[in-house]
Structure formats: C-alpha cells, structure tokens
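User: what does the whole thing look like in 3D?
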Amino acid sequence: MARLSPDNVTLALEIIGRYPRPKSALIPLLHLAQEQDGHLTDDAMAHIAELVGVTPAEVLGTASFYEMFKMEPVGRYVVNICTNIACQLLGGEELLEHAEHRLGVRPGQTTPDGLFTVEDVECIAACTEAPCLQVNYRYFHRITHDEFDQLVDDLAAGRRDDIPPHGTLARVRQHIPPERRAGCVLPEDTATPVWIASASTEEAEA
Amino acid sequence: MPEPEAPAADGVVVEINGREVVARKGELLIDAAERAGTYIPRFCYHERMRPVGMCRMCLVEVDTGRGPALQPSCMIECSPGMKVDTESEVTKKAQDGVLEFLLINHPLDCPVCDKGGECPLQDQTMAYGPGESRFVEEKRHKEKPIPISDLVLLDRERCILCDRCTRFAKEVAGDPLIHFIHRGNDTEVNTFPDEPFASYFSGNTVQICPVGALTASTYRFKARPWDLETTESTCQQCSVGCRISIDSSRDQVQRYAGVDIDPVNWGWLCDKGRFSHESVTAEARLGEPLVRQGDELVPTRWADALGRAADALRGASSPEAIGVIGGARLTNEDAYAWAKLAKGVLGTDNVDAQLGDGLPAEVVLGLPRATIDQVCEPGGTVVLLGPDVKEELPVLFLRLRHAVVSDGVTLVEVSPRTTGLTGLAAASLQPRPGEAGELVRALVAGSDAERDVAGLPAEAVNAARRLLAGSRGPLTVVLGRPSVAESATAVVDAATALLAARPDTTFLPALRRANVHGALDMGLAPGLLPGRVGLDEGRDCFAGSWPSVPASRGLDTEGILRAAADGHIDVLVLLGADPLADFPDHDLAERALAGARAVIAVETLPNASTRRADVVLAAAGFAEKAGTTTNLEGRVSSLSQRVTPPGTARADWMLAAELAARLGADLGVLDAEEILAEIGRVAPSHLGLDLAVVAGSPDGVLVPLGQPEAGPSSSGDAPEGQRGAAADAAAVRSDAADDTTTEEAEAAAAAAAEGAATAEAQAGAADGAAAGGDDAVPDEPLSAPRPELVAFVAGAPGSAPPLDAYAFRLVATRKLYDQGTTVQASAHLAGLAPGTAARVHPADADRLGVSAGERVVLRSARMSITVPVELDPGVPRGAVALVTNQRDVRVGDLIAVDGPVTELRIETAS
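Assistant: Here's the predicted 3D structure for the full assembly of 1116 residues, as structure tokens:
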C-alpha cells in the first residue's frame, strides 16, 4: 500500500496544472498511480483525492468504472487474449486454452510468481490479425502456440524490454516547459461561442 | 402545505389527463401534476434535490405536438400546450415494466425489512406493478447488511440505485463519502474502504431511501410501521427548531423523522437530533425525586422532595439569596411558570437561562431579528460572527450551504478558527481571539486599513472590506459566541459596529441550546420580564396577574455563581442546567455549588451538577409533555406529547406550580394550554398568542406578534402576513374577553388563526388576513398601549488586550457530539464524541519545537492541563484551539471568566 512517491507527486502537480480544475486531472493521476504500483492501491487513491480535492469515495467511484484500472494486484504482465468472433474462428479459444495450460492459471488469475495475469477479453480491434493478444496493451498478431510459448519465455527471462511492467502507458512522458504552455481557462471564464450566444438571445426574444 | 396557484399571467397552461392545469414557469411536470392532484409514482425524484431521471418510474405519456411519447416527468418542464396522460395504457405498461425490472434483483425479504409497511417500492408495486415476476434465475447476492457508519447500515441487495442518498450526500450535505462504485453491471452504493459515511447528516439518507437499503442502527427491528403512533413536534437538540415526527410504539419513542417545513428545515435533520430519541428512553432517566441523605441521593416521595425544596426556598434570608440558573430545556410554558415563580412569587431577579456561554439577553432580544429565510435570501450577504454553525446548529448549516451553492449568497466569516463553512465563504478571517470587534470595525470602515488588523494582513482585511462595501441586497449577521474562552464583549462590539455602519442589518442570534430563545422571551434573564420587556417597562402589564415584580435588576449566571461562591446565595435552583460541565469557568462553578447553602436541581437526566444537589426534582422531558418552543428566529411552534414520562416525573411548570402552592401562592394555571393563554394575555411580545394560533400555523408563529409596524426591512412577505393575521387573531381573542359570546369569538379566533396559516402560504398576505379579520376590529385590540420592547444597547468599543509574545490565547469551541447529557444518554451517539487535542498553527509548533502527537502542558493563570498537540493551519498564529466538554480534557479548568481572553503558556511535558 503506497501513496504517490515524491517524484510522482511532483509529476502529479504538473499534470493538475494542465487543467482548469484540479478534479479534471483525476484519470491521468490514476494512470500514474497504476504505473507506480501496478494496480491502484487504496492509499494511492486516498492520496489522489487529497491532491485534487475530492473525497476518496469519489475517486473510487470513478476508478472502479474502468476495467483497465485494477483494484487488486495483477501480474507484471497482463495477457489479454481475444476470443471474440474473428479470433474465435481463427483459433482464439484454443490459444486461450493453451495459455491456461502453459501458465497454469484460469482467466482472471495471476501466476504464483506474480509475472502473468491471463484475461479473456472481447474484441481488441485487430480482427485482420486474428488470433491476437495484448501484453500490457501491446499487440501481438497472428499468434501460434509456439510463438506464445516463446513470448512467455522471453518475458519471464526479461528479454523483452519493449514491454514495460503493467501500468506503464508510454515511456515517453509528456512534458511542456512552463513558458510553452498555452495555459488553461475555466469554462465559465471563456467567451460564449457566437453560435450559442445568438441562440440564447433568440430564445430570450421569443 | 398547499402551494399557491400560479397567476395565469406568467403561468404555463398544460393539460393533464384532460384537465387544464396552470403550472409555474419552469415547473417540473411531476410537481405540477402533484399540485393539481395527480400523483405520479417516483423513486429517485425528491423535491429538495436536483432531478436525475434515474429510476424511470415517473414515465408518463407526453404530447408536445409531435405525438405522444413516454417521458420522465421529473426531467421535463411544463411547456405551453403540453398534453399529458398519466393513466394511458402505454403509461401503465411502462410503469409495470419499470417495476418488473426493479424487482428482478430486489430480494423479497419484506417481512424482515424495516421499511416493510412504509416502503415506496412495496406500495408502488401494489399500486402500479405486475402481480408476478417472469424472472426465474438466481437473484444477485451481496453481504447484508454492511455498516457504512456507526448509525447507518447498507443492504446492497435491496438498493434500486435511485441516487437519492448519494445525491443527498454530495449536493445537500456536501459530504460525498458514499458513491456509486463498480459502475456497470455491478453498480453499488458504497463508501471508500475504511472511510465511513461519517456525516452529521447521514440519517437523512435513511429517511429518503425509497427501499430498505439504508436502515438506521437505532431503529433496526424495533417496530413495524403499522404499530407506530405518530405525532408532529419540534426537535429540541438545538435552537434551529426543525419540525419532526415522533414515532412511538408500546409507549416508547422509537424514532424521529424530519418534516418538511419551508421556513426552517426542509425535511432534513442532523444525526444528533434524529438519533437523540434514545435519550428519551435511556435507563438513566430520572423517574422519581431524589433527596440528599448524607453523601447519597436517595429516592423519595414527591411530597417530601417538594416540601424540602419549598422549605429551602422559604428559609432563604432574602429574595436576593435565591438564584435560578437554566431554562433552555424547558418549554415556553415551563419557562413562563418558573419565571412567574422566581420573579413573581419568590421575588428574586437572579435568574438566567444562559450559562455564561451565550450573549447578553438584551443583545439577543434587542437586535433587529432576521429569519433563516432572510439570511438565506438569494443574492444576499451574510456575516458569520459566531460559533461553527455546522457543529452547533447543523441544519442552519445546510440552509446556508444551499444559499451559497445554489442562490449566490456571499458569506464573510469572522471566527477565531476555521469552521465547517470556511470552504464556502467568500472571505474567511481568523482574528486573534478577543479582537473580533476591532476587525469588524475595520471591515465596515469607509476606507482601507493600512496596517495589520487583529493579527491579519491588511490585504486580506481590505479584500473582505470591499466585498462587504460592494454587497447589494440585504446584509444579515449570524451572531453568537464563537469561543467560550473569550468574553462576549468582542461580539457585542462587532454587532454595534455593523449596526452603526449598516442600520438595515438584521441579526440571527446563534445561541445553540434548545429553547434558550423561548426562555429569554419568557423572562428567564436578569432585568427582564416575559414578553421581551424590561422590569420597569413591563411592571404594569404584570401587576394584575403576578403577585409582585422584582424591584431591581438581578444577577446573571456569572454573578449568581460568584455570589454563591462568596456564600451570598442560600438556594441555587438548576433548571436543567449543569454549570459544572457547561459554565466556561469550571473552578467558579465548583466553588459556587460548594458555597450555595442548598441546591435544587430540576432535571430529566442525572449530570455532574445534579449529583451535588440537595433535592433533585424529576422532570418530564421531550415527547413527554405538550407545549410550545421558540427557535432562534423567534418562531413559536408546538411540542407534542407522544409518550408518558418515566416513573412519576412531572412537567417543569407543574413543579413550579407545586412549589408556589407550598409557598402559599397560586400560579393560577392548571395546564400548559392555560399558561400559553396567559402568556398571550400578558407578555407584550406574545400578545394574542394561544393554542389556536400555534395549531393553525404548521410553520410556527413568529414573535413579536402584532407589531405596530413590521420589523426593519423584513423582506419576506410571508412572515409579515403571518404577523398581521396572528395580530388579528389577537384582536379577536381580546374582543372575546370583553364580549360574552365566547362561542362566536372562538369561531372567529379559529378563523383568524386559519387566516394566519393561509396568509403564510399566500404571498399576497392581505387577503388571508382580511378573511379572518373582517368582523373584528384589527387595529385597536389592546386596552393598554404596549410597552416598549427591549432595545439593543450598543457595546462600548473594547480595547484589545495587550499582546504577550510568550502567551497563547485560548479558543474553546464545540463539536456536535460531546459529553453533554443527551448525547451521552443516546447509546449510538455517545461514542461519537471525538475528544480533543491542543490545535496550534504549524508555524507556532515549529517555534516551540513540538511535533504532532506530542503531549504538552497548557498552563493558564488558573491551572494546567496536559494534552496532545495537533497541527492545524486553521488556527491563527498565537492561539491554541481546544474543544470543550470532551472526554478526559476539562477545558473549563483553564478559563477564568473575568478577563476578555484566556492566555496560556505551552510547555513541553517532561
């Protein structure tokens, strides 16, 4: 259970600064917390609540809506195997069964070494490349059982440094130096767009 | 209460079930239909909250010219020419379908559900739903019930996700500690793990839950709705005066629920009020009189206890050797009877309903009074110059919160530490304790301050000053005692400055105790007589009905206690007062109880002071006697009896009458109604008040009644109309006294009282008043001209005490839950008292080299106590904040009431 690290707090404050209202930074901060711990800890959510000025219950209410925010610990690598129609026709279900046997876990479970979590997912939008899977949301196309075994071996041996641990969205962090930021303005402080302004005067006249 | 019909001019004509209905502009269809007598079933819609259209139960067929279509009536405003059918086949099919869906996962455990019998889901299923379900699969199962706070239990299986509780928590209470989580197929309401729904208002969610998903831990499995007997009354846990219903079964109070009245509580209650019903049935209740036998208090017969009390009173060396403290627990009738006994029979003016923790009575009664509605008037500006409203007057906090969030009211807060309203205030200033007067003078000054004021930077003060100077609309002040560790002088000084700068300012006095305002109105204060008049001004009014009136002004509580400590008080009467716990200066209270020759306590529950008494008279408490109460606005509303008092406990007025009889006087009253009638005959501010007037006004009656001209700038029409009509009722009554045809007069009075109610409802007050007043002569009701009511006496500008670089000034505030007798007698509330720590500003802690959690010694001129430190940037530099009346820490030990502030040293405990 961990709150955000001092480095991540610095980053969080920068992210909050990109939005007119601190609350708007909630989702990016949840990503940051998931990147830090691999999943969302209660402490991190409570910390985010403090940072953006809402209650922890509101953070949980938002976070728990999203399937890709994990409330429980998951493996270092989350393997999503598609069994939707195109993949199913081309061996998706067999691939899932193979994965289950290879890793010794059912969908939704994590291997005892904490490396792999297998998930049975709906379409991940790569039907032309079926059967396909994702590891930490990085695509692997037209996967054979041998290729799957090879992938698992490589990941376990740490040979795939193109796939960062679960929670990392991108390894290139957006950073805009303060002098180059456009700044942000509260919606109520912006000028009403012309089309809304004219519509509302018409209504008032009518 | 019937809403007024909208005038056709700016109304919207819609057709509901073939009948033309005039809706107000912008009115929701569901409201317009209900007003016209067509109830549309609903679960999520609640008239005091934003509509969300979640439950779909209020779908009706609406035709706006494009053909009929199903629309949720809680989400659409009435528009001209709209045709609505709430009984069509299509509507019925929709209602049937929505209910079938809602019942898919709803467990049918109605026989063991607290809501069964008063459940909207049950009732509407019977009225609109399918007879049976087509769902044969397994229902969803969840652990049931789970506690989401100490007071509220959640059964997620029963929840229909109407968003009422979560909306209440976020929008009304501002404590969004419950939320929809796992939204999607597994949506449920829940809290964050280990972060309970610890809101002061959590009980309201139980009341508005349309199913049995939220239940109160105090009521679980206690009664079934059809066994309950219900009476409407007024909550007595603070002076806001929320209307409540009392439910009892088997002569035991089972629960309270909020009743929606527009001028006060809007249906909401705080948890202290709602769950204090346990104190009525508490085992500790006094059911028989007690007398001292050596070191012990032993039960006795009433004749013995009253005889001993009367002997003590008779044996007093002079009237001035009798002191009477307390009265806020009493009804108006009780208070009047005790005032008559003390001032009229015993002849002492040493009477005070406050315990040195309020404001001088002349200030409370003399300042132009505002109503809650006037304080919350859209666009207005409110100066908070008193206690933490959230902790002491919680439902007033809800009204103020709504005023700020929804109605654009500007708050300017002046308090010795941050409060529950600080986050909502446009400006919040924390002056050094004792210097609020100086700060307020700077805030109303004509030009900017150039130097720091009361320890605050000039910029902050000037920003607030400009805010006040630029405020349009009415200026109102919530005025009370922010900290008992400083004298009331600074507050009076500040009020004087505000009134001088803005003469149209009105004040809402924020004294917290239940009926303290009624007690003051009834003359339980030195120098005053019932009806807000001074001794000399009112002497003539009471000449006929009272044996005597004290010759000169007596002592207030502080004076009485000092006199007692010096051995000048022979009998000290405690009317529901516990000076040992509540008087700011504990040492003085202690010496006073020791110094008084005899102490007579009139109480419902034992407390520290009753244990020191020589005679304890057991009093009937809330829900055990009828009468009236007066809230902080001066609103008189009814209290009802629902159960019988424990043992042989009697109403306080009866005890006063019994004592008077034993002293050879006759109070001349046989029941509470007679006392109220006497009040209405003699008390100048209450002339014309009687049971018919109170009973005829569900929202209560504002006093002073029948003022020659309405109070300054009272912008609310309704209260004025009400006043006028009630004055007419007064007219009829006094005519009845002259004439002999009582029956006729009765009828006319009833009509006038009804007029009062209608007038209150109708914005155009004239009609309603005239309806009752036609036959009477409204303008010359009284034989003698009414004496001048108490006027506000301006406080002399106090000079701030000199600063001492080493000393800290004490700020002593309150929390909603404390060691007070009713909280501690309510099993479910007792444990919620949070305790206290010495809160200091982090910079001060740094300077002293103490860290959070460390124990320090606070040393005043009086004594020292050891407490842990907490860091709190909401406390001004150079101050220490403590919470009074909490476990283990007796703040009163530090306070000496003779100085303007209490100064302390902080020493690290070794």
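In plain terms: Residues 708-782 of chain B have pLDDT under 50 and may be disordered. Chain B touches chain A through 16 residues (CB under 8 Å).
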